[in-house]
Amino acid sequence: MPPDFYARPILDLSRALIGCGLLVDGVGGVIVETEAYEAGDPASHSFAGPTARNRAMFGPGGHVYVYRIYGMHWCLNVVGGSAPGAAVLVRALEPTSGLETMAARRRMKDPRRLCAGPGRSCEALDVTRAHDGLSLGAPPFTLLPRPAEPRIVVGPRIGITKATDRPWRFGLAGSRFLSRPFPR
DNA sequence: CCGCTGATAATCT
DNA sequence: GATTATCAGCGGA
Predict the structure, then answer these.
(1) Residue A74 CA to B8 C1' — how many Å?
(2) Distance in angstroms, CA of A180 to C1' of C13?
(3) In chain A, where are the structural domains located?
(4) Which class is A3-146 in CATH?
(5) CA atom of A73 to C1′ atom of C1, Å
(6) Helices first, then strands: H and E counts in chain A
(7) How far is the CA of A121 from the C1' of C10 (A)?
(8) A28: left (phi > 0), else alpha (psi -120 to 50), else beta?
(9) How far is the CA of A113 from the C1' of B5 (A)?
(10) Contact assessment for residue A121 and residue A177, using Cβ atoms and an 8 Å cutoff
(11) Which nucleotides of B are covered by protein (CB under 7 A)?
(12) pLDDT tens, position by position, A96-131
């Protein structure tokens, strides 16, 4: 993916990532769900400015921000290149490559739940703090362009307590691999 | 399908 | 010491 792919407003980048392929060491699938976070957004980790944890959010676009949540899961974000402190949370994938590897890591077979959530996706792709700050343009990552413009559904973000009314969650319309359904 | 509960630790106040 | 961008397992419908 060219570097200027990331240099657009974070809501646009969130939509542009839907349908793209995301692989880590050849294992992964198609991004079907994302959420946008940005500086000045009370729900964003970047809201209070740079810290040790969120420094990747203020780094170059096209790199990743990985953090631990609830003491046990990892979450993967794509950092935006248009403004500092903005990133896209990768919430769900449609598994396409390395199904057996992902099933073994997740200790489950059902493809529908393999990557249906940010924590589940990181476990399936074996993404950890070791990846924090790395570029998507180099191994072990691969980000593939989408074959066609997908139809996208929109809704409020999940699991947050602030700025809950912003419709900054995006999904591939009709996908069976979402973390949760979108409201009608 | 849906909602509830407990697990578990880094981060920040 | 409170909060947290979550998940598996369970029970009910």
Answers:
(1) 13
(2) 19
(3) 3-146
(4) alpha beta
(5) 22
(6) 4, 8
(7) 23
(8) left
(9) 20
(10) no
(11) 2, 7-13
(12) 999 999 999 999 999 999 999 999 999 999 999 999
In the chain, the amino acid numbered A126 is: D
* Element of type H or E holding A20: none
Residues 40-99 of A with CB under 7 A from strand B: 48, 51-54, 67-68, 70-72
How many angstroms separate the Cα of A182 from the Cα of each of A113, A158, A174?
Answer: 16, 10, 10
Q: Amino acid letter at A77?
A: N
- Over residues A9-53, the pLDDT tens digits come to 999 999 999 999 999 999 999 999 999 999 999 999 999 999 999
Q: What is the dihedral of CA A35, A40, A46, A51, to 10 degrees?
A: 180
